[in-house]
Design brief:
The protein has 218 residues and is an all-alpha fold. It has a single domain, classed as RNA polymerase sigma factor, region 2, helix turn helix motif (Rna Polymerase Sigma Factor, Chain: A, Orthogonal Bundle), CATH 1.10.1740.10. The chain is built from 12 helices and no strands. Helix 4 crosses helix 5. The termini are close together.
């Protein structure tokens, strides 16, 4: 990786890429590759790599049209969401009724294991997240795993800020209800609720270390 490029902001890298500097583009891809891979991996498993590739290719194909209406990072997540929803829609039994505001990952594939983890609290949290509408699950994960602000999440999902705030509030409440429903014991539930921040951070780390994530060549 070019040391000069590594010190540049995302916006500077995009400008250089638009001017024909392919190394600047490679630096931008490397900088955001893990986060975009993490966005897909626990939903789609082995299929994730193709969609990660398509996300960055989509950014490159639309490079001339990018005018900084949002940050490059948010623009990548917008493309990733588009790719994800297309992939999930193709899985739905009734594609015309597929609605990310209603449809859940659990509903699309109730027998799938979202993430193989040894810790029962991790399994409980992931299972509960999969029971939320896809867009709500996405909001919570972008907020807690990727540290996106509410305004940024609204940009990714093309929603207004108040709508996102309302959906996230209801999503947190429903997440607790679902964890209570799925918990095998009161102790497991309480441990998960009390340490949910730690579990989310640990899951984020595990997703980053997943063997399914194939990092690009420098």
């Amino acid at each position: 990786m070019n040391m000069e490029h590594s010190k540049q902001s995302d916006e500077e890298l995009v400008a250089a890429w638009q001017a024909g500097d392919q190394r600047a583009g490679a630096t931008l891809v490397s900088r955001h590759y893990e986060a975009i891979a993490r966005f897909f991996i626990h939903r789609l498993g082995a299929e994730a790599e193709d969609l990660v590739h398509e996300t960055f290719m989509g950014f490159q194909r639309g490079l001339d049209r990018y005018r900084g209406e949002c940050s490059p990072r948010i623009y990548l997540f917008k493309i990733a969401r588009y790719q994800l929803l297309n992939a999930l829609r193709s899985r739905a039994r009734d594609q015309e009724r597929f609605d990310p505001g209603v449809t859940t990952m659990e509903g699309l594939d109730p027998s799938a294991t979202a993430l193989l983890v040894a810790n029962e609290q991790h399994k409980l949290l992931v299972a509960a997240l999969r029971s939320l509408p896809i867009d709500v699950q996405m909001m919570l994960e972008l907020h807690y795993w990727e540290q996106l602000k509410i305004q940024e999440i609204a940009e990714v999902l093309d929603m207004n800020v108040n709508n996102v705030k309302s959906k996230m509030k209801r999503g947190r409440e429903r997440l607790q209800v679902e964890m209570k429903r799925l918990a095998e014991s009161p102790e497991q539930l309480q441990t998960t609720l009390h340490q949910i921040g730690d579990w989310v951070a640990d899951l984020r780390e595990k997703l980053g270390e997943s063997d399914e994530i194939v990092h690009p060549e420098p």
